[in-house]
Amino acid sequence: MGNGINCGAALEVNSVNARLAYVDFKLQFMGRISRADLKSAFGIAEASASRVLTEYSRLRPNNKTQKTNTIKRRSFEPLASFDSELALGMLANGFNSNKIFGVTELSYEKIGKIPNQLNTSEVAMITRAIAGNYAISCKYLSENSTNHERRTLVPLAIMYDGTSWMFRAYDRSEPKANKFKNFHFARIRNVDEEHEIKESRQHYHEALMQDKLWNLRLPLILKLHPSLSEKNKSKVITDFGMASDKEELIVTERAAFRWIVEKKWYIDARSQEQKLEDAQRGINRFYKFELSNLEILEKMECS
């Protein structure tokens, strides 16, 4: 196996490589590994789990502590090469050794993959902070703000909208009342972990359970937008799996995701005043749906 695991299709997929890759994955992206983790993931006995950890330590003696099996951040050298998107996908859906070694049931290829979009090292720092319940400091290149100063964030959860990987975090640097916000992994820069600082531990009011918009689920009543031609209405009905005789779609989403869904699905969530103002200015935007219960949703969000 040499000095590392080459996660390519040419490498023989065997139980030893898969277990070693799992240890590497857990350390890099979660910050720790345990015998219980190995037993649960592979259905092996305690003795077998111990042998895996011993072999891993032989191959990478400076990657983890011996007693607690936690990552040694300063000397950690990955045994396996993990793509950031692959790692985030497995954090969301569970470890899958077939994905690591490029094994698929059918021929598969991702379309339009952006090279070097995500910094694996910084992604790992953020996911370790989620697992360890502590803060990070970083710069964030927001598309809606010119504030690119360092922020202190407490990462809480990861999300994927089908295009971009994001994370939910409590922003300690935010002066406004609502400090729970969504952040794109691709817009993060210069991450520093603050795991050794006592004040950086997650506080009760910063926990995900205290995030009102995350825990509030909204019923979005979407009607085909009146500006659509019959041809475009038919396209939308097909693309969204709607019944051919229906012009309404009802979905439930977290309030924290409403803006994301509105943008991605081209949903018209303007108030009547905004619509009149756009009409007076001659602004014509393309929409697929109209949000028909906007007032109710706003009341739910403010209650």
TrEMBL record:
Residue ranges of every copy of the WYL domain listed in the record: 124-191
InterPro entries named in the record: CapW-like, WHD_CapW, WYL_dom
Top-level taxon in the UniProt lineage: Bacteria
DNA-binding transcriptional repressor CapW winged helix-turn-helix domain mapped to chain residues: 16-86
Protein name: Uncharacterized protein
Species for this entry: Aliivibrio fischeri (strain MJ11)
